[in-house]
């Protein structure tokens, strides 16, 4: 506990949180809707990438179908709001908790697998859940669910509701980055690192790898569940193709690897860079439908030549950075 | 006082009996050598003691507690530590972090801050303190071995299992390591089991007692010089006189 409090005042965390906070207050100050939409997207990227970083970056388990938790959290929260008129905040927390529980149960099976087998199993989970939801009549099947606009009246109108979603996403991004930092600096985080580097040696050294992996997987599912809840609330509708889109999973992996997996700053930097790259490619008619292909090529080159990502590379080359960039 | 006891421990891999009805005890504070040619079951013996494998038959006791079925991860905190025949550093972490992991999860059960201090202490002891901030993957083979010794000692074990730790070292490094091990053994009252394939000479300087493994069985056990000069030992080492 004392360790955690001391860590919270570390510059390498504070500057990161400061940037996110400053970025997040620009839209309300300038009252710019386009800015809000852009930054909402970046904040969502940050929250998702940093969540994935817990299992992928810290623990070394490539959860390829990780978007499944975004979808499940989205559906759980959406359904609670849609059927029972529950407020976004408790609905969002419920979405996160359901995701953590499902991650615990699925983890019992899939966390025994290693390497590519684990990655493939997680894709299977996403596709299976998507197929299931597609067939659930009460969730609207493949057409999904649409909010009645009256729902937003509880929030003082659609405008306010969207701002609420925006602020919640900003808070969530900050919370996920902070938890990344605290995990990394903790005994738990060093245990996860050991699992990533050599799981068999980690067990012999006394690390309860099963428990640690399970906890890491639950945490990395909990936050995306809440992100999905916020996103689909703001979106006003949810459907299986959007909620369980494997492409979004690949985006998450891309951001983590680009920024530097297993670092705290990496997923943040990866999110910013990806948003830029995506933006540039999407407006360019030549690449309009190819932005994922380009991202794929970049990913391949990264894994071949800069496997530690932007932050990993910089920390390695510039010793002084190690003190200020986690 | 007895620290570790193996009773008729057997481990098979398919049709191969890697360890066959082996029994022995390790007393508190004792230094034991296990010798035997390649494939005689030495590494498997260690894997059984710290739970990488579970024996097909027989029982294992640590401080009187039956640990035969105890999960692997629960053994280090009881006071067991080992090094690996082929070093297994956590390559992406710093040398200091590697050793700190030992202090946190082993018998020392240190907090992060304490563990980093303990790590520095043992890095100094084995002489690679200046490599503390280096990624462990970048250490030389010798440094990796020393890091593993530091990581194991940082666990504050009661029993330290060394797997061919001196193989590939030059004689002066071996002498230094033996001196160091003897010292910590006295200071921290650790029992040390060291296994070697060759390097009988090193074992004579270190072990009070020797166990000879041959084709998965315990061939002989007794005072070091007596055992190593035994005709049977000479025979399994291709008729060469060993010491
Ligand atoms: N995981 C395993 N699977 C199959 N055979 C194994 C395994 N581990 C060891 N063995 C076999 O068990 C025998 C003993 O090996 P080992 O314990 O490594 O001997 P040593 O350490 O004395 O050289 C060898 O024949 C080896 O091939
Ligand atoms: Mg061996």
Integer average pLDDT of chain A: 92
Main interface: chain pair and counts: A-B, 22 and 31 residues
Proportion in β-strands of chain A: under 5%
- The residue ranges of chain A in which pLDDT falls below 50 over 5 or more consecutive positions are none
Helix content of chain B: 25-40%
Return the CATH architecture of the domain at 1-72 and 199-205 in chain B: 3-Layer(aba) Sandwich
Number of helices of chain A: 15
How many discrete domains of chain A?
1
- What would you call the shape of chain A? globular
Broad CATH class of chain A: Mainly Alpha
Question: In terms of structural class, how would the helical and strand content of chain A be classed?
Answer: mainly alpha
User: What is the name of the CATH class of the domain at 1-72 and 199-205 in chain B?
Assistant: Alpha Beta
Please give the largest β-sheet of chain A: 2 strands, antiparallel
Strand order of the largest sheet of chain B: 6-7-8-3-9-10
Query: How many DSSP E strands of chain B?
Result: 10
- The CATH topology annotation of the domain at 1-72 and 199-205 in chain B reads as Rossmann fold
Number of helices of chain B: 9
Q: Indicate the mean pLDDT of chain B.
A: 91
In percent, how helical is the residue content of chain A?
over 70%
Folded structure, characterized:
The complex is a heterodimer of chains A (326) and B (243). Helices cover 77% and strands 1% of the residues of chain A. Chain A has 15 helices and two strands. The model of chain A has no long low-confidence stretch (mean pLDDT 92). With 243 residues, chain B is α/β, with parallel strands linked by helices. Among the domains of chain B are: 1-72 and 199-205, Rossmann fold, CATH 3.40.50; 81-157, no CATH class. Chain B has nine helices and ten strands. Chain B is globular, with a radius of gyration of 17 Å. The model of chain B has no long low-confidence stretch (mean pLDDT 91).
């Amino acid at each position: 506990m004392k360790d955690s409090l001391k860590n919270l005042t570390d510059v390498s965390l504070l500057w990161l949180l400061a940037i996110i906070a400053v970025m997040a207050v620009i839209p309300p100050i300038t009252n710019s809707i386009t800015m809000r939409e852009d930054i909402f997207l970046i904040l969502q990227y940050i929250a998702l990438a940093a969540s994935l970083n817990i299992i992928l970056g810290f623990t070394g388990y490539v959860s390829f179908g990780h978007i499944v938790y975004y979808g499940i959290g989205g559906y759980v929260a959406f359904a609670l709001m849609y059927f029972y008129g529950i407020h976004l905040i408790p609905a969002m927390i419920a979405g996160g908790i359901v995701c953590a529980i499902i991650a615990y149960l699925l983890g019992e099976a899939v966390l025994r697998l290693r390497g590519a087998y684990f990655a493939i199993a997680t894709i299977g989970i996403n596709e299976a859940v998507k197929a299931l939801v597609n067939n659930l009549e009460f969730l609207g099947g493949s057409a999904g669910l649409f909010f009645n606009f009256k729902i937003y009246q509880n929030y003082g109108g659609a405008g306010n509701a969207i701002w609420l979603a925006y602020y919640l996403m900003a808070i969530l991004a900050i919370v996920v980055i902070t938890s990344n930092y605290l995990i990394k600096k903790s005994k738990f985080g060093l245990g996860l690192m050991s699992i990533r580097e050599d799981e068999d040696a980690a067990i012999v050294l006394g690390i309860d790898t099963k428990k640690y992996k399970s906890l890491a997987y639950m945490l990395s599912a909990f936050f995306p569940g809440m992100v999905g809840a916020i996103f689909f609330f703001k979106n006003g509708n949810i459907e299986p193709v959007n909620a369980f889109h494997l492409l979004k999973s690949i985006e998450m992996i891309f951001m983590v690897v680009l920024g530097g997996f297993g670092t705290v700053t990496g997923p943040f930097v990866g999110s910013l860079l990806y948003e830029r790259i995506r933006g540039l490619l999407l407006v360019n008619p030549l690449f309009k439908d190819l932005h994922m292909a380009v991202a794929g090529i970049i990913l391949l080159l990264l894994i071949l030549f800069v496997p530690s990502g932007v932050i990993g590379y910089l920390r390695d080359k510039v010793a002084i950075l190690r003190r200020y960039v986690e | 006082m007895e620290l570790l006891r193996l009773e008729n421990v057997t481990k098979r891999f398919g049709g191969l009996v890697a360890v066959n009805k082996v029994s022995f005890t390790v007393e508190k504070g004792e230094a034991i050598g296990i010798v035997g040619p390649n494939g005689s079951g030495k590494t498997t013996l260690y894997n059984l003691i710290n739970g990488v494998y579970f024996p097909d038959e027989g029982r294992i006791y640590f401080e009187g507690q039956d640990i035969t079925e105890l999960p692997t991860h629960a053994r280090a905190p009881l006071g067991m530590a080992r090094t690996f025949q082929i070093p297994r550093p956590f390559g992406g972490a710093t040398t200091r972090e590697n050793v700190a992991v030992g202090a946190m999860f082993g018998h020392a059960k240190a907090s992060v801050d304490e563990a980093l201090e303990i790590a520095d202490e043992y890095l100094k002891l084995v002489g690679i303190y200046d490599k503390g901030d280096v990624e462990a993957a970048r250490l030389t083979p010798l440094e990796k071995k020393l890091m593993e010794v530091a990581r194991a000692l940082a666990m504050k074990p009661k029993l330290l299992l060394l797997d061919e730790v001196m193989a590939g070292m030059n004689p002066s490094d071996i002498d230094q390591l033996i001196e160091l091990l003897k010292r910590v053994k006295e200071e921290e009252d650790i029992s040390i089991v060291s296994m070697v394939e060759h390097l009988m000479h090193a074992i004579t300087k270190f072990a009070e007692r020797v166990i000879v493994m041959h084709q998965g069985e315990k061939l002989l056990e007794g005072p070091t010089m007596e055992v190593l000069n035994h005709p049977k030992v000479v025979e399994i080492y291709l008729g060469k006189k060993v010491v």
